[in-house]
Amino acid sequence: xxxxxxxxxxxxxGSEDLPLPQYMTxxxxxxxxxxxxxxREILKKGQIKLIPTGIKIxxxxxxxxxxxxxxxxxLKYGISLVNTPGTIDADYRGEIKVIMINFGDEDFIIQRGDxxxxxxxxxxxxxxxxxxxxxxxxxxxxGGFGHTGI
Length: 150
Fold this sequence. Notes:
By secondary structure, the protein is mainly β. It has one helix spanning 71-77; strands spanning 8-11, 31-34, 40-43, 48-52, 55-58, 63-68, 79-81, 86-88, 97-102, 108-111, 115-123. The protein has one domain (8-123): Deoxyuridine 5'-Triphosphate Nucleotidohydrolase, Chain A, CATH 2.70.40.10. It is an enzyme of class 3 (hydrolase). GO terms for molecular function: dUTP diphosphatase activity.
């Protein structure tokens, strides 16, 4: 059984009617985030819009939240996020907002309370750089960008 990480959350005034982020199944990695628009927003074909979620969080030091697209919106409507995954750092205290884009063929209506994205909480390891003159060789070496075929 995993240990639950305690995260402080504050609803932005006027968004208290919206659910807190929640897992939709027992083994979900991501929690759904809800649109905190006044009533509705139209995301026109090809348009990018910043959509508020109505929440602020305080993550423990050493954690981040990643904001990711919802696969159902992507498949059915061509709705995604521009910077995916978006990172919420442990020291950020502002409202979480989602940069949505409509890759679909039609305008998309976002209603208040719609599930618009997922949030995944991850532990972050802090690193220390160690400059060297050479790196250890590997089977891959510096191969990248399709070097194993397409």
